[in-house]
Specification:
Tetrahydropterin Synthase, Chain A; alpha+beta; elongated
């Protein structure tokens, strides 16, 4: 009799436990993510990082990454304002600002962002000469950012940076740029040589004027040269320069006056 009473109670408890287990849903959302909670396919709410429990049936969760990320726009064939063909690649730094909007209003928001950046790149490059493209890469990145940000905001995405990564030229254009660079380097080297020669000539001219005003400096310079040659173990043969003061019998004799033997009477 007791078993007949207990068995239905136990069966009911088991059924209730199983039903409660099926009705209880536990969701874990990781840090840096948000969870889009759906009930029977209909969006309910966004779940913050942590543990969440919901009661009912047919719940599902879609985790969405909110961390910053980079998107590479591969090399695109473009024409500059002066009709030069080249390839450019971009790096776009982005972050989801409105995951609900990006997920529900766009079939593929990453693909849409890619095309927005591609169109902005084509528009900017078509209006810039090739030389400006090489010398103003930072300014061009700013122009691209100004074009991409408003369109990305419509997708629920915040774009932080847009930078030109690589600029690839055709082979013949590379050779032309290499020739121009070589000519510039050779001209710079010739200019430096000319400056060095001019400086050396100015120094010589200054030294000549200094010696002209102080003849004794020539004697000092000659003595220094002879001393240096002797110290190095070399033999130096020199003629006496004009202005050198020869010495005889302990007394100086003006240059050009030769010594003569005393005549006999």
């Amino acid at each position: 009799m007791i078993y007949e009473i207990l068995l239905p109670a136990i069966a009911i408890a088991v059924v209730v436990g199983v039903a409660r287990h099926k009705l209880r849903h536990e969701f874990i959302v990781g840090e840096g993510f948000t969870g889009l909670l759906y009930h029977q396919g209909k969006f309910v709410e966004s779940l913050t990082p942590g543990r969440h429990v919901r009661w009912g049936r047919l719940f599902s969760l879609a985790p969405i990454d909110l961390r910053r990320s980079l998107m590479t726009i591969a090399g695109q064939d473009l024409l500059t304002a002066d009709s030069v063909g080249l390839k450019l690649s971009l790096v776009v730094g982005y972050q989801l600002a409105d995951p609900v909007k990006a997920t529900h209003e766009s079939q593929n928001w990453m693909g849409d962002l890619y095309h927005v950046a591609h169109l902005a790149l084509r528009t900017v490059v078509n209006a810039v000469p090739v030389e400006s493209l090489l010398s103003q890469r930072l300014e061009i990145g700013g122009q691209l950012l100004a074009r991409v940000q408003p369109e990305a905001a419509k997708l629920g995405v915040t774009v932080h940076t847009v930078e030109v990564k690589d600029v690839m030229f055709p082979a013949e254009l590379k050779r032309a740029f290499a020739d121009v660079l070589k000519a510039k380097q050779e001209g710079q080297a010739a200019l430096e040589r000319a400056r060095g020669e001019s400086a050396a000539l100015r120094n010589l001219a200054n030294a000549a004027r200094l010696m002209e005003g102080n003849p004794s400096l020539l004697n000092l310079r000659l003595i220094q040269s002879v001393t240096a040659a002797q110290a190095g173990g070399n033999t130096l043969v020199l003629g006496l320069p004009g202005g050198f003061v020869p010495l005889k019998n302990g007394g100086p004799r003006p240059c050009g006056e030769s010594a003569s033997e005393p005549s006999s009477s």
